[in-house]
Write a structure and sequence with these properties.
binds NADP nicotinamide-adenine-dinucleotide phosphate; 46% helix
């Protein structure tokens, strides 16, 4: 059966690496992005150059109408989705909880949490109606377990919600043979840290990790791809830490 995957937030970082690895493994891939059209087009061009199949689709995944448009486009251009990677996420400048505004908290949660619910909803609806034993991987964070005090408790709490979503949905759809798992990356070299005001964050903190180095996007992509694959066929409702031993 044709494997059709959506990777949200795949214009760069972990999402881009995952989209490329999935394409190498024979998946037809939808590269979703929000703002960076050129970067998403480069990811698709790389995949096509390597003989894979991919499209890029702009959609703000925190917006339900845009998510519906995104999934309809996948239906029309690639076919019915079989695999979903919820990866799009944001991190905002470091601050203590007492300095967080409702506006920031709501933006964080709509981007990092509502989006995962909306994409799960559209994917599961299609998997159920087409009797597809599909798989979903939600990208959480090691922050879900540390709480990220003094830096970004809002981000950490949004990722805690993803762990709970993963468990709950996995149990809800397991009898349909749909698997739902998650990864918790930690200290991965991407541009996300610069967006939060500290481009060198991984190098500042890497020595606290048992493996004493930062992780690469390819290492996270490998974990995501394994959880999506038939090799993980008896694994559901599980979170896999990809965080150097912490
Ligand atoms: P990144 O380099 O900042 O990339 C984020 C991606 O998300 C971009 O492609 C961006 O697209 C997309 N995006 C953001 N808001 C979006 C929206 N509303 N709709 C659609 N796409 C949106 O991030 P990353 O470091 O690769 O992180 C990927 C995931 O891993 C995130 O969920 C993050 O929380 C998690 N994570 C990362 C680390 C780490 O150390 N890097 C650690 C733990 C967890 P545009 O640029 O086109 O807007």
């Amino acid at each position: 059966m044709k494997k059709i995957a959506l990777v949200t937030g795949a214009s760069r970082g972990i999402g881009a690496a995952t989209a490329k690895l999935l394409a190498d493994k024979g998946y037809s891939v939808c590269v979703n992005f929000n703002k960076n059209t050129k970067a998403a087009e480069r990811v698709v061009a790389d995949i096509l150059e390597n003989g894979g199949e991919a499209i890029s689709v702009q959609a703000d995944v925190s917006n339900e109408v845009e998510v519906e448009r995104l999934f309809n486009k996948i239906d029309d251009e690639l076919g019915t989705i079989t695999h979903l990677v919820n990866n799009a996420g944001i991190l905002m400048p470091q601050c203590k909880l007492i300095d967080l505004s409702a506006e920031r908290i709501n933006h964080m949660f709509s981007t990092n949490v509502t989006s995962y619910f909306l994409c799960c909803k559209q994917a599961v609806k299609r998997m159920l109606s087409h009797n597809i034993a599909g798989a979903i991987v939600n990208v959480s964070s090691g922050a879900a377990q540390t709480g990220s005090p003094n830096e970004y408790v809002d981000y950490a709490a949004s990722k805690g919600a993803i762990d709970t979503l993963t468990k709950g949905l996995a149990m809800e759809v397991a009898h349909h043979q749909i698997r739902v798992n998650g990864v918790r990356p930690g200290l991965i070299y991407t541009d996300m840290h610069a967006d939060a005001g500290e481009p060198d964050r991984v190098d500042r903190l890497k020595s606290v990790l048992p493996l004493q180095r930062g992780g690469t996007v390819e290492e996270v992509a490998q974990a995501i791809t394994w959880l999506l694959s038939d090799e993980a066929s008896f694994t559901t409702g599980t979170m896999l830490n990809v965080s150097g031993g912490r």
